[in-house]
Amino acid sequence: MICPICAAVGEFRRVDAREMMFGWREVFSYAECPHCGSLHLLTVPADLGRFYPRQYYSLAAPARPKRKGTGVRGQFARWLLASRSGIAERASRLLVRKYPFLRWLRLCSASTKAAVLDVGCGSGGLLYRMRRWGFSNLRGVDPFTGNTVREPGLVVERAELAQVEATFDVIMFNHVLEHVADPLATLTLARAKLRPGGAILVRIPVAGSHLAQRFGANWFNLDAPRHLAIPSRRGMTILAERAGLDLVHAEYDGDEKSIIMSERYARDVPMIAPEMDLDRQGRRAKVRLARQLNRTGDGDLGVFVLRRPSAAPAPDGETCARNGTLLSREQTPPSGPAGESLLGRSQVEAEAAQSPRTPR
Questions:
Q1: What CA–CA distance (Å, rounded) separates 326 from 237?
Q2: Residue 126 phi/psi, 5° resolution?
Q3: Residue 207: phi, psi to the nearest 5?
Q4: First-to-last CA distance in the chain?
């Protein structure tokens, strides 16, 4: 068996997971790489499209905002992306839950005029929101979308990445790369469509993270069988290098939803079931835990920025970063087994539970 992330060969541990988003409970087997800790689906269903029904969240018709960011929103976005001040950096972090694209484009050193391609854009909801904030050169492709749009500054089409002939300043894979069977070929193709100085942004679940280990087969972001390959932190660095790219920045933005849903899956409650009441204190504890995991580089959702290598030799530590702190390849944090359960609460959970409440 060969790992599609790092190409290692060896004895892979098997993890059997159920489809729980819609509560169908069909079982699918994943293999965990002994070298990089990444996960991949052993057998891709022949009828994979069946697992993306009309009610799948990214395929719902988006609300189309009337205004296009010509006012205060557009001015604020231009300042946020252009400024290197500490105030702008803090603002982008504070707004990341509601307006994550502002943070992402800032990490890519892009402007509101940058040519942006959103691969796997669904119905284009993210692009509509971006346009409202003044982004004026947006394009999205998705082989399953039923929402085709051609408007000034915004194009959404039913297509694959390989069918796109233009080049871009930013290519985004927002919860998309884990849905493709060959992430190496996909990143290599995206690299060829980058303009000089451009960046690829990948937002993806992280195998071997704390929650992946804690919940194992019930980990919410495993999402069988829609997620075909999920890299670990180490795996993402190796995958980027194999595609001819440098991983220049990494940070983590997991939230309490993954904890809540993973606990529900462990109780055999699917995602679509009516939401069970969670007291305010319990939810806040999960929010604190998720934030603590992100701060320590162990969140279960990663945001990775990839660029073409520079012509000059890269200094030690340029190829990987954790929450803004550059790490050398030797310092890349190891990935633990994705299916092992932890006994009791970890130190980070205990610290999060005891930390002061964070204002929302």
A1: 13
A2: -65, -40
A3: -65, 150
A4: 46
Short-list 100, 128, 110, 112, CA closest to 76: 112
How many angstroms separate the CA atoms of 351 and 347, rounded?
6
pTM recorded for the entire structure: 0.85
DSSP 267: T
What separation in angstroms does the CA of 304 have from each of 216, 252, 321?
Answer: 23, 9, 9
pLDDT of residue 336: 40
Whether the Cβ atoms of residue 74 and residue 133 lie closer than 8 Å to each other: yes
Residue with tokens 């980027």: 240
**Which run of H or of E encompasses 168?**
strand 168-174
Report yes or no: 203 and 301 within 8 Å, Cβ to Cβ.
yes
Which residues make Cβ contacts (< 8 Å) with residue 337, sequence separation at least 6?
13, 32, 37, 208, 213
Backbone angles phi, psi at 51, to 5 degrees: -90, 5
- Output DSSP code: residue 230: E
Residues of the chain whose pLDDT is less than 70?
57-70, 276-277, 311-360
Any residues with CB less than 8 A from the CB of 316 and at least 6 apart, and which? 328
